[in-house]
Amino acid sequence: MSATPVDSVPTGVVSTDAVAVQGAHRPPGAARDPAGAPPGTPVVARATSESDQGPAGPARTGVWFVGARGSVATTAVAGCAATVAGLHPPTGMVTETAPFTEAGLPPLSSLVFGGHDTASCPLPKRAEELEAGGVLPHGLAAAVRSELAAAEAALLPGGPLPGETRTQDELIDSFAADLTDFRVRHGLARVVVVNVSSTEPAPSGDSLAPSSLYAAAAVRAGCPYVNFTPSTGLHAPALAAELAAGGLPYAGRDGKTGQTLLRAVLAPMFVQRALPVRAWSGTNLLGGGDGAALADPAAAAAKNTGKARVLADTLGGLPQGEVHIDEVPALGDWKTAWDHIAFEGFLGTRMTLQTTWQGCDSALAAPLVLDLARLLARAHERGLSGPLPALAFYFKDPDGAGSASLADQYADLCAFAATLGGDAR
After folding, report:
1. Do residues 351 and 369 both lie within one domain?
2. Burial of 284 (0-12, 13-18, 19+ CB in 10 A)
3. What is the pLDDT of residues 127-136, one digit of tens each?
4. Residue 162: how many CB atoms within 10 A of its CB?
5. Phi, psi angle pair for 336, to nearest 5°
6. What are the pLDDT digits (tens) for 287-341?
7. In total, how many domains does the chain have?
8. Where residue 292 sits, what CATH number does that domain have?
């Protein structure tokens, strides 16, 4: 089995408050509860019950990153601390806007961060590097150093590591035990696992990809799961039975942050204005961990699957043209994406639209990751299970067959938020 990608896996723990809470989520496999739920059904704590209220406020929620020392996770941890401290507004966090006020989401101040990573750069140092690259604002690494240091002090190695001797099942059990220990030690109501590790090639043969080992561990530990990458994760056929029995909510895959986000806006425009698209080509230039990972043609192919889906689903098929991904190490965590769209107008007049997207993926992704962790935590509290197609707004290749239009997806997301409000069942 290949080693885990650079950006994936160790456990850093950082809490944005100091509130201790009572009550814990029962892991799958526990005995039937008094209400008659079958084994493996998540235990749901009511928002107003003692199990979800600590002595000084709401229960804390764990956010466990696979890829805890990567750019996205580091930005999310630093950004959450900065937002809670009032140093910066929650820009880019959809869950901090008006439609989500009554959704009952866990407060940012209640989030406790952990995770796995095989990388060795300490979180405070990684934040300094991101600050030097313009990803984090000047002075932020120092301002939240204590939170980053607290996370670094609790980091655990992941795997599989070079020379790994543990079997796949032993690795899954080990990761699941880490999750359970994290939840119990910190008195967490629940833990949401979020995969933000580097993109891996699609697996071949019967072996589970590293992302699927972590996904299986999440299911065994009774944790909701988010796959923010194009990697296989829970989509491995070997996990289907265990996933169905787990009774957990999950969402994915591949976060929609830049080029595909724009495609989800533009493609419906052409359909709605009856303008046939003849060709749609794209190029991505990027550095950093993503650039290095996507230099592998197999990993790039996995990434492009999601990029193509929004066009195929919206236009009724793929037009001519391809997407190319080129690594440019000098760009660091920044990327440039170009699209060239050839379309037909009235009387066959041929026209083009060209777009340029320049941005920092970590800064675009981090608020979405925090959104998803909060939404999955609340869905779990409400007793929801299975894929959550209403979260397609966040993904290139979402579960389900709904609309690929960003406007439609946003409407679905807001409607979902309305259903999350009120007491849990």
Report:
1. no
2. buried
3. 999 999 999 9
4. 7
5. -125, 130
6. 876 666 666 666 666 666 767 888 999 999 999 998 888 889 888 888 899 999 9
7. 2
8. 3.30.360.10
